[in-house]
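Because discrete structure vocabularies remain unfamiliar, it helps to consider an illustrative case, giving the amino acid sequence and backbone structure tokens:
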Amino acid sequence: MRTQTIAPPPPLEKPEEPVEDLTALALRHGLTVSGARPTLRSYVRQIFSRRHFIVAFATARLTAQYSQAKLGQIWQVMTPLLNATVYYFIFGVLLDTRSGVPDFIPFLVTGVFIWTFTSSSIMAGTRAISGNIGLVRALHFPRASLPIAIALQQLQQLLFSLAALIMILLAVGEFPDVNWLLAVPALLLQAGFNTGLSMIMARLASRTPDIAQLMPFILRTWMYVSGVMWSIDKVLSHNKLPHIVLLALECNPAAVYIDLVRFALIESFTAAQLPPHVWALALFWAVLFGAGGFVYFWQAEEKYGRG
């Protein structure tokens, strides 16, 4: 008589651990979501820890910028000088904006060099992410390192230009005095303003690349209302403009930083007594755009390089 063997019942499957339990377990062991945005304080620490990379990246870009040109780094000085020459002929001679402006040549050259510092930082900022997309997608690092490095590169480039500016000032009879030291805090405040604006443009252009094509027109308009080639004070005193227009011209951040450097370097402007509100405005714009631009860029940290 055959006996039928009864197979044992299959073992009961262990129920899957709830997702929330796994999440809690990961958090207890310090695991975080891949690509998640760090806290603002942690992000600042990460930027500081990459400070050597930021300096090296800025210096490498500065060295490579004109490596294919025969005159090399000389173009860092020649470009604003050539622009100043063109502006002198068009605005100073043809349109006679030099009339009533003392020391027009140092006035114009200083305005061109300081304006170039801001405009170059903005244009370079629009390419901070899109121009380094391979680096962004391949390596993990705080993305703000890129626009900060680009702004630092423009500051380094300005130092070359200042050497030429000082030689021009000496050639036209402007000699160093204690007021020249005021150019240092003015340029540092402008650098903070430029860095924040560069980060804002980097975020905007990373999602909308067409902004880079639009910026030259915006910057050209901004330059024309910033007193680079003409005296804002002269216009304000000879034209009855609406109060809002006068206020916009006086508070224009580009004009503020240009005026501060002119006040520091040009003797006729030093004697004219710069209004005290200009320094307050320079600090206000530097803090507003420097800190605000950093936070605005950080808020999209996890999105750069995607899509």
In short: The radius of gyration is 27 Å. Residues 145-171 form the longest helix (27 residues). Residues 52-300 form one domain.
